[in-house]
Amino acid sequence: MLHVTDVASVCAFKLDMRLEDDSIGIGSGSLLCHRNRIYILTARHNLTGRNAFTGRAISKRQQGGAFPTEVRFHLPYETKLDGDQVGFDAQPCVLKLYSSGEPIWMVHSADDLRHDVAVISLSDVVAKKLIRSGVEDDTDADFLAETEGLAASSDFVTLGSGKSLRLAALTHYVIDGFKLRVGHELFVLGFPEGISASDLPIWKRATIASEPNATVDGLPILLVDTATRRGMSGGPAIARAN
User: Fold this and answer.
1) CA angle, corner 240, sides to 180 and 169, nearest 5?
2) Number of other CB atoms surrounding residue 171 within 10 Å
């Protein structure tokens, strides 16, 4: 059970990029609910293993570079406490990044490395049996014991036991109509150098450094001034309403 003072803390999770059994990089990600489908949202370079600007290999573990074939992470979900209170927990998962030699993630239609964002449809990887429990010899039918028993067509997952759980997607807790302004304070959540606090992300203070409606090099990019570190790539940026 995860006990937090801010629900956003459970929405960001660490991504452990792997080449077979070797960890070759750490990144961050979160869950996004869009049109009743759940997606894993992260930085594109976490999944490709290539620098977003140069296209070169990020990891030098092997000659010519090492590129991830799977990612390990903890899938966060809500749990019911006494009364109407909601708690949170997380399930270790292993996700294969390729199906029949093709990447499972989706990117911007321009297919430009500068669009350093990627999403993975949870329902698609479940249907293709590319995700499994990260717990060795997991026989708990209440969660991910049978991959084919998990159906993610909305913000709920239906388990092999028939029980339904609501995933902790960041978009569940967003305030509609909130307007960003230049100079507005926000926080970047992630796992700098793989560091966490009880498996929860580190919050790094940041400031919006460009007008929200401006463009950078012709792209709809919002600049943020902060001191992030390796391992925080792909983590969400949280702005709070006063």
Assistant:
1) 100
2) 15
Cα distance between residue 215 and residue 223, in whole Å: 9
Sole residue written with tokens 């793989």: 194
| Residues ≥6 apart with Cβ < 8 Å to 141 | 149, 159, 160, 161
Least confident segment among 65-74, 132-141, 142-151, 225-234: 142-151
Measure CA of the first residue to CA of the last residue in the chain; give whole Å: 29
Q: What is the pTM for the complete model shown?
A: 0.87
- Give pLDDT tens digits for 33-71: 888 788 999 999 999 999 888 888 888 877 778 999 999
Q: Which two tokens stand for residue 238?
A: 């949280």
- The H or E element that residue 225 is part of is strand 224-226
SS3 category, 47: helix
Q: Cα–Cα distance between 47 and 67 in angstroms, integer?
A: 8
Supply the DSSP symbol for 6: S
